[in-house]
Amino acid sequence: MEIMNNYNKTQKMKTKLINFLAKPYSVVVVILIATLLSLEDRNLGYFFGLGVALFIIWQKKWDWSNVGFGQKLNLKTIINSLWISILFLFVMGLIDTIVQHYIGDHNLSSLDDIRGNFSSYAIIMVVMWVFAAFGEELLFHGYYMQRLAKLFGDTNKAWLLSGILISIYFGISHGYQGLSGIIGVTIGSLFFAMLYYKNRSNLLLIVLIHGIYDSIWLTLIYLNKDSMVNEWFQQLLF
Predict the structure, then answer these.
(1) How far is 197 from 161, CA to CA, in rounded Å?
(2) What pLDDT, on the 0 to 100 scale, is given for residue 22?
(3) CA-based torsion, 42, 47, 52, 56: positive or negative
(4) CA–CA separation, 85 and 41 (whole Å)
């Protein structure tokens, strides 16, 4: 009897949680809790939010279309991700160079361990694709941005406003990179948000672009060629 009572209590709590997360305003509560957790450790807030997003997908019987994964991987998406990644790399190279010229360099010291170290490089590459390319896009755009847009009325203006707010939030969450890093990440996130705004059923495209872009820079850092690329952009602009 006691086991049955505990089971019924658990089911009631689960039902209440599901009903709460179905409310449009619930995403604001999730973001606030994630922000508070991030004050203790930036990873805590990230994994809390990601856990909530995955819980919602799970209770929807793993229907990924609810968070933007409405299209399967196809040749068109792959080709688009490649040329957009190259364009994004060049544009962000210009923007980051200008930002760092006037404000200061990004603090990327956390990646110094992968320089010339293939095992560390391989591990961080896998971690990046799982938790940055996939995880961050799922959380910040597939969940946060989409839910905020629906809270604001689900209009085009609501999606734009949501994209701007989440980009700022995402940029601030990278405070460990310094002020120039925050600005650069915010601008990059705005680009991804606008892409998602235009491709609301194809978040996979943004995941691929994010992953390819980060893969290029991680490879440059591993090969100790990132400074050479940065100097090239410096000479191009100044």
Answers:
(1) 11
(2) 86
(3) positive
(4) 30
Q: For 36-86, write each residue's pLDDT tens digit.
A: 999 999 899 999 999 999 999 999 999 999 999 999 999 999 999 999 999
| Domain ranges, ordered by start, for the chain | 65-237
CA distance 88 to 191: 9
The token duo for 217 is: 């820079």
| Separation of alpha carbons 186 and 179, rounded Å | 11
> What are the helix (H) ranges across 128-177?
135-136, 146-151, 156-172
Contact status, residue 211 vs residue 138, Cβ threshold 8 Å: no
Exposure on the CB side of residue 216, measured as CA atoms within 13 A: 15
Digit-coded pLDDT (tens) for 193-225: 999 999 999 999 999 999 999 999 999 999 999
Distance CA 147, CA 163 (A): 11
Distance CA 69, CA 73 (A): 10
pLDDT at position 8 over 70 = no
Structure tokens at 83: 């040329």
Distance CA 226, CA 228 (A): 5
Q: Which residues lie below 8 Å from residue 141, measured CB to CB, with a gap of 6+? A: 68, 166, 192, 193, 196, 203, 206
Given the structure tokens 């994004």, which residue do they identify? 88
Report the C-alpha gap between 49 and 219 in whole angstroms: 29
